Amino acid sequence: MLKLIYTTIMLIPTTMLIKPSLLMQTTTSYSFILAFLSLNMLTPKSNMYLTLDHISAPLLTLSYWLLPLTMLASQHSLSKEPLQRQRVFLVTLILLQLFIALTFMANTLTLMYIMFEATLIPTLVIITRWGQQAERLTAGTYFMLYTLTTSMPLLMAILSLNNLLNTPTLFTQMMQPQNQWTGLILWLACLTAFMAKMPIYGLHLWLPKAHVEAPIAGSMVLAAVLLKLGGYGIIRLSQILPTPKTDMFLPFIVLSLWGAALASLTCLQQTDLKSLIAYSSISHMGLVIAALSTQTHWGLAGAMSMMIAHGFTSSMLFCLANTTYERTQTRIMILTRGLHNILPMSTAWWLLACLTNAATPPSMNFTSELLIMSSMFNWCPTSVALLGLLMLITASYTLHMFLSTQMGSFTLNSPVQPTHSREHLLMSLHIMPLVLISLKPELVI
Prior knowledge:
Blueprint: H1 2-17, H2 23-38, E1 45-46, E2 51-52, H3 56-78, H4 83-105, H5 109-118, H6 120-130, H7 136-165, H8 180-197, H9 206-213, H10 216-240, H11 250-268, H12 273-293, H13 297-328, H14 344-357, H15 364-379, H16 383-406, H17 421-439
Antiparallel strand pairs: 1-2
Helix pairs in contact: 1-2, 1-4, 2-3, 3-4, 3-10, 3-13, 4-5, 4-6, 4-10, 5-7, 6-7, 7-8, 7-9, 8-10, 9-12, 10-12, 10-13, 11-12, 11-16, 12-13, 12-15, 13-14, 13-15, 13-17, 14-16
């Protein structure tokens, strides 16, 4: 594990000192080597300071797999930037990856909290310095306010746990507290921070803003990895904190399911493509929160597989939205109609991405939704009404997104470049892991 961390750190001086003509090729190739090295981490490992188990290993590999893909996706926009800004952008991405890796590998609560919060700084820099519109500073402010406000109770809870358990590792079960309010307050303090990161509906306003304003690399990392830190935190804390009654989770389950349905309905009225994909992420993360709140093995398996499947699917959708934006210079869906007439191969990728997003069998997304629905049905049979409504709206907005961008007659008069091999490689590297995991789901479940 330390080998992987040191290798990632050494990518920073490499990026700063390499010849300008070799900058993108070297950093991307180096990142691919890191991605393949991280596949070795899928088996649980442990040492004095860092630990990987069946929960953190798939998420770590996902984050490393996406690092070279973010660099590939950013090549077109970075080529117009001055050299120094290119170097700083790549270093920021690598730093973000380093903090994410250390969060997943952390052995103690304190290290996990420090790294969890450290991811905020590179993300904020990416949104505010390389964002696409004037509102990027507002998006950065929202992101900071939501994350920092909810992180303060988490810090207090971690300090309290350190005092109670004498600096516990992430695998130390806390004793049942004498006062029932202690356990409840600790749970609420920890859940708020992680649910704002996921985000649960009600604490979600920062996410669409951050996604719309962020450059393509920022959107990919936000959707694919940073949202999963919230789910990972909830899973980890449920191993440490005293097991509460399921009644305590009842408001969260109701809010997450109802919020997921509302976020899906919001998708149907979006005109901005990136905003639609961002709201779909809120909807899928609502399902993850509901599954984790049932505190069952099936719920945990469904949440884990949903996080991995959503990581690849949402990242692929953002890449496709970016390829459309680079050619049409607009994200308004009604203005990008009829792309299947001129970019048929791109339409095939859109169809694959939309099918996985709508959880069509035999994709990993379908497996995860089946597990989540089973655990929810066992917990409360009436929840099927909300879940059924959610599936129906998800299929509707996915179909709406596909038809709005691909069908109809092409309206723009400007010439459109054909899709490049780089973009086809990018889509293949998103869809291939999804297919392979579907064949061997025990890697993540």
